[in-house]
Structures are given as structure tokens and as C-alpha cells.
Amino acid sequence: MIQDTDMPVKMQLQAMSSASQALDLFDVPDCNSMACYIKKEFDLRYGSGWPFVVGSNFGCCFTHTKGTFIYFCLETLHFLIFKCSAA
Description:
The chain has helices at residues 9-25, 31-46; strands at 2-5, 52-55, 70-74, 77-81. By secondary structure, the protein is α+β, with helices and mostly antiparallel strands.
């Protein structure tokens, strides 16, 4: 379920698909491996500069490039994906 986003629909679908694949490949407590897996997928498709946060309890504050942000939930985990904004 998408909580918030400004990503194009095609990129949203890619994010959720990659997250779903990561959930199939790794145990739920292994959030770091999931984040790294999804990051590699996005870096290959959309270039580098994509931080990923995966977990069930986290806070954050960031500035992102317009059109690159999504926050969604799958199963019991939350996924935060965005591309860093140039300083």
C-alpha cells in the first residue's frame, strides 16, 4: 500500500516489484539485505544516488529530487525510496 509518493507510476511499480522480490529472497528481519538489493536494482535502472530505508520503525528527514520519492508498505515492512537532491 502506497502511503505517499511523487514518483511516476512506472517507477512506483518498479519500486514495489523490487521490494516484493526482496521479500521473497530474504528473511523479514534482514532489512539491510533487502535495502541493498533494491538499491542495486534502482542504481542499474535509474543511475546512482538512491538511498533506501527498509524496516518497521524508523524516522527520517531528507531532501529529494522531485519525482523520485515513494513511501509504501508491504507485509509488515515499510519502504522509503528517494533520489538525493543535489546540494
